[in-house]
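The data layer described in this paper is built around a simple, fixed record for each protein. Such a record has a labelled line for the sequence and another for the backbone structure tokens. For reference, a complete record is included directly beneath this paragraph.
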Amino acid sequence: MTENALRVWIAGFACLVLAACASSGNRPVDFGSTEKAAEETAPLGGASLDLRRANMARMYEDLMHFRTALDDAEQRGDRTTQVALQHFVDAYIGMHLDPMLAGEWQSRHPELWGVDADLRLAKAQVLARMRERARANAVLEEVGTRYAGREDMLVHYPPGNQSPLGKAVQLIRDGD
């Protein structure tokens, strides 16, 4: 009797597992989704604004480190490291940076537009270092349209210095 009860219990458990797998109500989370959370689409102020600024500043620093690492690998002639780093940076840009820069509000927000412009220029510079000139030029064109009329705004380019946005865009286009 216990053997039959065990078989019934296993069969019942298997049915429950199959039913759970087949149900359409519980879909797995899509971490690559393009949908934005409500707090990302809402206007930010206070602590949320500070958090967004800190995230953007951290990503800017990450891009500067990536640029330095790409330059170092190129100077050493280490093609394997350079290619691996390019793949990593490309994934980082696609998964983390592009979703953050997808909105337009931070380009118009007076407390964030400087950090936003710095971040976009850093992205263009890293893409140029990766020999992705078409993508870098697309980013620079986007910067030109987003910041039309604000070409005299100071940005952190070249790294460690400040220059007007229009001059920084031209320096990146000319290959530094």
Remarks:
- The longest strand covers residues 154-155.
